[in-house]
Amino acid sequence: MIKKLLSTILICYLVLSCTNQKPVTTGYQGQGKSAIVSTLSKPVQKQWKGIWSFEDGTTFFSNDFESGRLNGIAYDGNDHYTALITAENTPINVSPWYAFKVWSTTPKTITIKMTYQDSRSRYYPKLSTDGIHFTPLDSANFNAINEGTGTFGIKAVPEFVEIKVNISEKPLYITAQELYGSTRVKQWVDSMSTKPYVTTYEIGRSRENRSMNVMQIKEGSHKKAVMVISRQHPPEVTGFLAMKSFIETLAGDSPEAQDFRNNYDLFVVPLMNPDGVDNGHWRHNMGGIDLNRDWENFNQPETRSVRDFLVQKEDEGYEFVFGADFHSTWDDIYYPIDSTIIGKKGEIIFNWIENISNRLPQKHTNIKPSTDIKPTMVSRNYFYVNHDMPAIVFELGDNTPRDFLRLKGKIAAEELMKLLLQ
Ligand SMILES: [Zn+2]
Q1: What does the record list as coiled-coil region(s) (predicted)?
Q2: How many CA atoms lie within 13 A of 357 on its CB side?
Q3: pLDDT tens digit string along 124-151?
Q4: How far apart are CA 17 and CA 313, in angstroms?
């Protein structure tokens, strides 16, 4: 009886204290524990690439460019088309990437219904006539069909969308996010490499024989370094854009950046999955695998090349003081390793997050520390478990405003420099 009473009191106390202490959080709360999956290669459906022609050869659609994805297109009459977007293989995360061009011999307005394999309409359409400058589709030309009922994630977005666009002889790009294929990423890396302390070299080859490149920012001969990677997942362009701003700040001309480079080297793999990016994949590499599950068994050449690079650097005597892997999801979120696991070593990460947040009060960003670090599977865990690196998954929202992404990347770099130079 007393035992029962005590346990009732204890439960009440726990419930009350949990209720009292529950932090007020808004926005995306983060994903749960990652399931353990095999990373042995699986078949991938290579996309047919080419030009579709309609209405007596007056209207055309094409997916034949870097990062293009359009798996089928049907003409329904009355200037209405239905586009089919499918994944490279399944099961797969719901990141239905699309990118195609459309044009016609005479100017006209058409409507395109976007449909997806086992997914809903995650990415808001962007338009461009040069493949470089993109603007979101005017909302007056966006019609959601079967709107989502959830508050966040795939359940909150429409099942299909119908978009209205004006087309003419000049091809119009319609894409899920801005295009940053391997050619454009290389242009950025080359532009950075005009600085005397920036060099780029190959550390391996992807499954389809694309270069795996490291950008090295190095002045002086110290053996402390920061490691940064991005684009394990092809559609995650917003993570890439924040990473780009982060790196440009660390490699910049400010006295702090100079001071940083006088004490630390910086290694960057800006494009972890060049095959997936150039083939317009939703998630996987050409081995049909989510690379961010392969940091335990290293069955894929892309992850192996970075593993071997890190092992080599450590053999050369390097100590890694910070590691970041940039991604995109439903909203900005930080995934550090929980302090009960990482202890004092992780203080820099939590201080860094706090300092960034203090400078960006306009946008609350959730933090979801992870206690699951073995098997390592994801890059952050591998960085910490195998190389003793305080490491984080830095996630940006699909729809986070682009000027805010740039600002966040810059401030994240400035705050990291401050902490590392203390
Ligand atoms: Zn990701």
Answers
A1: none
A2: 13
A3: 999 999 999 999 999 999 999 999 999 8
A4: 47
Q: 55 CA distance to ligand 1 centroid (A)? A: 40
Separation of CA 13 and ligand 1 centre (Å):
39
Write the DSSP assignment of 391-420 as a string of letters.
EEEEEEETTS-HHHHHHHHHHHHHHHHHHH
**Separation of CA 232 and ligand 1 centre (Å):** 6
Domains of the chain, each with CATH number or no CATH:
51-175 (2.60.40.3120), 182-420 (3.40.630.10)
The pLDDT value given to residue 29: 83
34 — pLDDT class (breaks 50, 70, 90): confident
SS3 at position 159? coil
pLDDT bin (cut points 50, 70, 90) of residue 286 is very high
Listed residue (399, 246, 410) closest to 328, CA to CA: 399
How confident is the model over 107-124, as a mean pLDDT?
A: 97
Q: Which one-letter DSSP state was computed for residue 102? A: E
